[in-house]
Amino acid sequence: MAAHPLHLRRYGEPGQTPVLLLHGLFGSSANWHSIARRLAQRRPVLVPDLRNHGDSPHDPVMTYAAMAEDLAALLEGEAIARAVVVGHSMGGKAAMWLTLHHPERIEAVGVIDIAPLSYPSGFETLIDALLALPLQALTSRGDADRQLAAAIPNAAIRGYVLQNLRRDGQHWRWRLNLPVIASALPAMRAFPDARNQQFTGPALFLYGTRSDYVGARALGAIRARFPLARLRAVANAGHWVYADQPDAFIGALEGFLDGL
């Protein structure tokens, strides 16, 4: 499995153990910009685009194992002995897989509104709508937004995915590798068998009280792999905890980091 060099944003000055921030499905490093700037006041922050997302390479393989190897290679290439890895949703699963398979490189792990579980389908309709968008005929991002409104009625979600629409000359293109992501959805919804591997270091699981991604059934799965995990709810936050309640999110994450 070949690792890819990932597009990377750097914040803050080297010195302390860095925080590695990982975005979710359909996201990019840009999603973390305001959070990374705030965290970087206290320690360095690295924010990559995961494979098949943002400005990182496309690859037909889209698994958590492959993403973890990209991230391990990133740490090696940056000469980082240990990092704190924090990931949201799909990025949270990538963070867990990296931590379970390269624990020597991870000081602590933060997982945002996801658990090491399989989840039901939910993005097929969205991906079908993105694939069906007539890129050659688009006149603007606003035009794309109007055409997607029927299939994706939530304006916030449309805005989130449309950040990936880019203009090249006279035409538009997706930065996302949509065909590969579509075929990988079953693997992305699941969490692979970690063969009873555990991470016995510090772990924080943050979740939104208005989200159903981390419920009662998640606790056993979390404890089985991260026995020292702390769970903390963020009030009035949905799945995008850091966007819904940024101050509460920063406060919880910085409290965790300060305790390391």
Could you characterize the architecture of this molecule?
- The protein has 260 residues and is an alpha/beta fold.
- Helix content is 37%, strand content 17%.
- The longest helix is centred in the first third of the chain and has 14 residues, at 64-77.
- It is globular.
Let me know the largest β-sheet: 7 strands, mixed
Radius of gyration: 18 Å
Q: Per the principal axes of the C-alpha atoms, what is the gross shape?
A: globular
N/C terminus separation = 33 Å
Strand arrangement in the largest pleated sheet? 1-3-2-4-5-8-9
- Helix percentage: 25-40%
DSSP summary: helix tally: 10
- Mean pLDDT, all residues: 94
The string of secondary-structure elements, in order, is EEHEHEHEHHHEEHEHEHH
Low-confidence stretches: none
In total, how many beta strands?
9
Tell me the β content. 15-25%
Classification by helices and strands? alpha/beta
In short:
With 260 residues, the chain is α/β, with parallel strands linked by helices. The chain is built from ten helices and nine strands.
How are the SSEs ordered, and which strands pair?
Blueprint: E1 8-11, E2 19-22, H1 33-39, E3 45-48, H2 64-77, E4 83-88, H3 90-101, E5 106-112, H4 124-132, H5 141-148, H6 155-162, E6 165-168, E7 171-174, H7 178-189, E8 203-208, H8 216-225, E9 229-234, H9 241-244, H10 246-258
Parallel strand pairs: 2-3, 2-4, 4-5, 5-8, 8-9
Antiparallel strand pairs: 1-3, 6-7
Helix pairs in contact: 2-3, 4-7, 5-6
